[in-house]
């Protein structure tokens, strides 16, 4: 692959990822949640069973201070709450509230709508093939924004 072809591939993948992120966030907002894309990236780490601020910072690729500021914002908006950590008395566990789970479900619906739009253009088989191919090259690990 020539450099120009690699650059073109890079550009379309980044454009698709950015558009997908924006469409999901727009769908969440349209469903009545005051949100921004960073919330969704945080929720992917918090959804399984919570996380400490430090763990969330590592997941997002930000400092503990930045993660703490995000958690404060999420607490104020009612998306998360802090609870005692079940294994570490010094730590607090940040978990999604019912409102946080509702926002997560809204994001899932918005993501499904965005993918349906791709299916309208490419067809269901092509979208499945695209998913399979991207899964072969996508890194395992946290899904985080490019700050």
Which short descriptors sum up this protein?
6 helices, 147 residues, mainly alpha, 7% strand
Write the layout of secondary structure elements.
Elements: H1 3-30, H2 37-46, H3 53-60, H4 64-76, E1 80-84, E2 92-96, H5 98-122, H6 124-137
Antiparallel strand pairs: 1-2
Helix pairs in contact: 1-5, 3-4, 5-6
Would you give an account of this structure?
The protein has 147 residues and is mostly helical. 67% of the residues lie in helices and 7% in strands. It has six helices and two strands, in the order ααααββαα. The protein has helices at 3-30, 37-46, 53-60, 64-76, 98-122, 124-137, and strands spanning 80-84, 92-96. The protein has a two-stranded antiparallel ribbon. β1 and β2 form a beta hairpin. α1 (3-30) crosses α5.
Morphology: globular
Radius of gyration: 17 Å
State mean pLDDT (0 to 100 scale): 93
Largest sheet: number of strands, sense, barrel closure: 2 strands, antiparallel
Low-confidence stretches: none
Secondary-structure-derived class: mainly alpha
Separation of the first and last Cα atoms: 28 Å
Largest sheet strand order: 1-2
User: How helical, in percent, are the residues?
Assistant: 55-70%
Count of DSSP H/I helices: 6
What string, H for helix and E for strand, traces the elements in order? HHHHEEHH
Name the beta content range: 5-15%
Query: Could you give the count of β-strands?
Result: 2
């Amino acid at each position: 692959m020539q450099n120009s072809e690699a650059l073109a591939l890079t550009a379309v993948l980044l454009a698709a990822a950015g558009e997908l992120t924006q469409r999901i966030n727009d769908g969440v907002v349209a469903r009545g949640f005051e949100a921004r894309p960073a919330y969704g990236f945080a929720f992917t780490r918090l959804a399984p069973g919570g996380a400490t601020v430090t763990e969330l910072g590592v997941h997002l690729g930000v400092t503990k201070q930045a993660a703490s500021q995000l958690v404060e914002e999420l607490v104020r908006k009612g998306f998360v709450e802090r609870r005692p950590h079940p294994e570490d008395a010094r730590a607090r566990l940040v978990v999604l509230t019912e409102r946080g789970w509702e926002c997560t479900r809204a994001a899932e619906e918005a993501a499904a709508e965005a993918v349906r739009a791709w299916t309208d253009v490419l067809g269901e088989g092509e979208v499945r093939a695209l998913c399979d191919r991207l899964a072969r090259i996508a890194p395992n690990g946290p899904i985080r924004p490019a700050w």
